[in-house]
Amino acid sequence: MTDQLTGPLPDPFPVQSAGRKRSGRPNQLLRNLNAKIASIPMVLTALVIFLGGTVWTVVYSFTNSKLLPRAKFVGFDQYERLWAAPRWLVSIENLAIYGLFTLIFSLVIGFVLAALMDQKIRFENTFRTIFLYPFALSFIVTGLVWQWVLNPEFGIQSVVRSLGWTSFTFDPLYNSDIVIYGVLIAGLWQGTGLVMCLLLAGLRGIDEDIWKASRVDGIPMWRTYLFIVIPMMRPVFITTLVIIASGIVKVYDLVVAQTSGGPGIASEVPAKYVYDYMFQAQNLGQGFAASTMMLVTVAIIIIPWAYLEFGGKKRG
């Protein structure tokens, strides 16, 4: 009798308890139902417009479409013509040069500016606004401004020569060997301020105790940045790299405003090649093939990174 009194009491409502557990499953499905319904237009837009448009472009890149798309398949002929075209090869080379130097210089300059801003300097808001202001301008405006600045008749070259250095020469937009670097200067001027703000936000998220501990241990500031702060800011750097890379791949209006692809074809980029063949040369098949190669290039870079970044975490 005593054992029965001191033992655990049985559940007087076993059926109702099981019912409560089963009833939790539909509640999970109905949770945030309004948000899920509201996201349906966005999901449909992504599937129909973006994914559907991508598939449509890839399929018609194997056709002989001219002014209007037509389902006359020619295999890989468009891709063979594409990689045999000197203009396309020049555009790929320019994109590689522009992209590499943009990634390096924008991250280095942006981080240095962010580190200086993080020292709680006076008039920080004013300097931050000045550095970020170029990003508020369109690429067309930026291109036109730097076209004037780099013009040898009344730009930097003219100003320096008026000061006495008559042999000074600086006309990158008129030299086919270095014209892409003139475009690079304008791109860095516009985009570095945004990189600075993103990295400054990451620096402001670092715990002050880390800086205090490094000062107590006598660690130089540059070693603290290099071996402690930068590794902790890895997510911020990844986000910044994605934003920079997206701007590199689609660079078009900056080139059009500054050089229109010249001198000759010296400053051509893939996006301009696609636009010219689709809307000016009226060769949709060639434009589709070029845009597909741009998509493949982005996929080659993004898919391995996404697998290493998210797949490894999921397995861990």
UniProtKB/TrEMBL annotation:
This is Sugar ABC transporter permease. It comes from Rhizobium daejeonense. It is a multi-pass membrane protein. InterPro entries: ABC_transporter_permease (IPR051393), MetI-like (IPR000515), MetI-like_sf (IPR035906). Residues 1-25 are annotated as: Disordered. One of its GO terms (cellular component) is plasma membrane. It is found in: Cell membrane. GO terms for biological process: transmembrane transport. Residues 92-307 form the ABC transmembrane type-1 domain. Keywords: Cell membrane, Membrane, Transmembrane, Transmembrane helix, Transport. SUPFAM superfamilies: MetI-like. Belongs to the binding-protein-dependent transport system permease family. The chain crosses the membrane at residues 37-59, 95-117, 129-149, 178-203, 224-249, 288-308.
